[in-house]
Design a protein that fits this description.
This is Selenocysteine lyase/cysteine desulfurase. This protein has 13 helices and 13 strands. The protein has 393 residues and is of the alpha/beta class. The two termini are 34 Å apart. 44% of the residues are buried.
Amino acid sequence: MPDNTRRARDEAFWQTFADRYDVEPGPLNLENGYFGRMSRTVVEEYQRNIELINRSNSVYVRQRFEQGDSLKIRAQMAKLIGVPGDSIALTRNASEGLQSLIRNYNRLQPGDQVLFCDLEYDTVKGAMRWLARNRGVEVIEVEHAHPATFDSLLNTYREAFARHPRLKLMALTHVTHRTGLVMPVQAIAAAAKEHGIDVILDGAHALGQLEFDLTGLGIAFAGYNLHKWIGAPLTLGFIYIAPERLADIDPDMGEMHFPPTDIRARTSYSTPNIPALLTLPLVLEEHWAMGGAAAKGARLNYLRNRWVGAARQLPGVEVLTPDDPRLYCGITSMRFTRHTDQQVMVERLLNEYNLFTVTRSGAACGTCIRITPGLTTTADDMDTLTRALTELG
């Protein structure tokens, strides 16, 4: 058994990490997919940085942060995904970055087609529809068959590529926020490349819980969050553009603070959350000390499989996310098949079992309840969920 897989089951080992987080008394949080907690030491560092910036104000920012510290932090973020430092630009979140990539993609002509699926984030869907209104392109929307398989996901795209020869651009989510489905990105991107279709990847939920080689995936454009599974404060993310493709994304609304050859011109220029950015060296240090995405992902998958294995046997519960290891991560969705209103069941999970979850809608397979354990979640917590599903189903 690989070391990370074995350690994923070691409650005492993971309790040493859970003890580093302060948790408010109240419901058990199974909605860790929204954003992650900062460790106690990161919170303390963040507070120190707030005080530093408040004291030193623009003197430090102009003399040191803009000229040196920000560049070092940027290089560390690039190292996180194994790309050159000049191929990323910091943003406030993945949504902001993805909107910029979509809005400024300059290889579209009126009559071209762009594509997204039912599982994309609503902000991404909205940005692609904005292209239709403002660039004269046609939007192609596809729905994925349920239950999904590796082949069905890939074939849905292959069929769409064959049916729509004017496709030039597509959105693709690495880990879908609705069901936790992990898309076969490498295979889909390779198929898209055969048809001359560019991919903009939403990696918001992937960074920190999935191991991946971005270059190996065949991705030239991507947006990420740092506040989900990396452990950073809110308001931090970044975009990636392959250096050889930089010219295909225009400077954002004519941004002139950086030259056109600098990726930072592809995002809006503003005063960032400097205290949050200054916490990133410590955040990354703790991420790697915990074992990085390999260790975090193994732990989250173990917690996921603990409740999913039992739920698969329950007659009144449908787990929507496949059990193919290539297609799932810690986030998984389900629904009660004997109850029409899933929001009512979310409220019952909270009121009767003290379990906090959320519904997600918009997928062709219907409304679901998203279950997302976190780094403070225990095996006993998953067993509490299993008992609740058994009694409510």
